[in-house]
Amino acid sequence: MLMLTITWLSMITMVALLPKKMLWPLSISMALIVSMFSITWFYQQNAQLSSNWLYTDGLSNPLLILTCWLYPLTLLASQSKMIKQPTPHQRVYMINLTILQIFTLLAFASSTLIMFFIMFEASLIPTVIIITNWGAQERRTQAGSYLLFYSMIASAPLITYLLFLYDNMHHLSLQMMTSSPQQTQFTALLWTTINLAFLVKMPMYGLHLWLPKAHVEAPIAGSMILAGTLLKLGGYGILRLANFLPMCLCSSKILYIIIAGILVPTMLCLRQTDLKSLIAMSSVSHMNVVILASIINTPTSTSAALMLMITHGLTSSALFCLTNTMYERTHTRTMALLRGSLLIFQLLALWWLLPLMFNMALPPSPNSIGEMLFMTSVLPLSHYTFIIISLGMITTAAYTLYIMLSTRDLPQNHLKTLPPIQIREHLLLALHALPLLLIIPNPELILP
Ligand SMILES: *[C@@H]1O[C@H](CO)[C@@H](O)[C@H](O)[C@H]1NC(C)=O
């Protein structure tokens, strides 16, 4: 505990004090050390109460490790864009990123629900600052305020329910709650109202309007963290409360929306022109799968939800990095203008292929393990659901091909003179692919 505090605080002081010349290389290597340190710590802490403040178990450990892993990668990805800005801006940017990571880590590792809630909300502040201050286009203020107001309004019922719960039980400790599951089932309407904060964050289909905006406007590190860890805060919240707040699956119209949310975004992906908003849309579809899996709330579906969250965090973050790599060279994300770019960046085509195949859950990727677990837990629920979700998988394959084909055509003239891909970018993508490949032979690392 003390060790972790010291390492993360030293990261902030390092960033604030390092000389200008060495700022990026040293802080990235420092971030790598800090995150590896935290990863070993969390890994050894498996299913133990560590202190009064922190509680980690099989559900939060993989998410904590994912958050730590992505932290140096976000710095690595934003280097080329930020290095052109004045040095104080760079420092403030890195400190804000670090604080965002600390809030996320504390949210995943907190021992009481109320602390989880506070950290969940606190992580909004640096996110909005990063989007509105360092975003790419003029509409970033609008995107930031969408994100802020959607999340704040939706969290009002949750805090009310938590206070009510505290009144009844006189504690909100996670450890005591997981040992005493609730028997009565909640009606769908009540469940949705209480979980609204998480459903907006995930986002559930219909509440997702802030997500494509935020992704399109955010700088690359913002997109990576948003897709990689912040969306998972919502999933973690639902899974945490699932034991205590089971939903009655009997008469729930809300399920129709969620099932539509698996199929419809994949179809919308086929109509997108902007690469970044396409990836954001595909995240919506994947996250609705996670919501449905956590509502079903059997051991299999919980494992599926966790597996899908981890793999989606890595895959979509890799896809955003790839989009950014193209964007930095061509200054466009419009797919019609990117036509043929992969014939120029031959090696990049391989890097595109891997996350795209993982994103569409091609066996033997870990994503496919998650999908299989999910499908087996859906089948007893209803046959129509099963069919609709299978259709969703087919359209997923379709938009994957759409991305591949639209970037492969004959190169256009404006793409002929572009700077080559740097080693930094290869390293970035390799570090995304490595954990995904490592999970394939050891899926039990993630299953709780
Ligand atoms: C985060 O960024 C904002 C805007 O530049 C800045 O005012 C603030 O001081 C930063 N936060 C920290 C802790 O440096």
Bound molecules: 2-acetamido-2-deoxy-beta-D-glucopyranose
- How far the N terminus sits from the C terminus, by CA atoms, comes to 23 Å
Tally of strands:
2
Weakly predicted, low-confidence segments: none
Annotation field: number of helices: 21
Q: Which strands sit side by side, in order, in the main sheet? A: 1-2
Rg, nearest Å: 21 Å
Q: Using the alpha-carbon principal axes, give the shape.
A: globular
Order of helices and strands: HHEEHHHHHHHHHHHHHHHHHHH
For the report, how would you describe the main beta sheet?
A: 2 strands, antiparallel
Structural class computed from helices and strand pairing:
mainly alpha
Mean pLDDT: 88
Fraction of helical residues: over 70%
Percent range for β-strand residues: under 5%
Protein name: NADH-ubiquinone oxidoreductase chain 4
EC number: 7.1.1.2
Family: Belongs to the complex I subunit 4 family.
InterPro entries: NADH4_N, NADH_UbQ_OxRdtase, ND/Mrp_TM
Summarize this, please?
With 448 residues, this protein is mainly alpha-helical.
Describe this structure in words.
Helix 3 runs antiparallel to helix 4, helix 15 (275-296) packs antiparallel against helix 16 (299-330) and helix 16 runs antiparallel to helix 21. A two-stranded antiparallel sheet has the order 1-2. It contains 21 helices and 2 strands. The chain is globular. With 448 residues, it is mainly alpha-helical. The chain has helices at residues 2-17, 23-44, 60-82, 87-109, 113-122, 124-134, 140-154, 156-169, 174-179, 188-194, 196-201, 210-217, 220-242, 254-269, 275-296, 299-330, 341-344, 346-359, 366-378, 383-406, 423-439, and strands spanning 48-49, 55-56. Helices cover 73% and strands 1% of the residues. The site of 2-acetamido-2-deoxy-beta-D-glucopyranose (NAG) has 6 residues, from helix 4 and helix 6. Its main location: mitochondrion. InterPro entries: NADH4_N, NADH_UbQ_OxRdtase, ND/Mrp_TM.
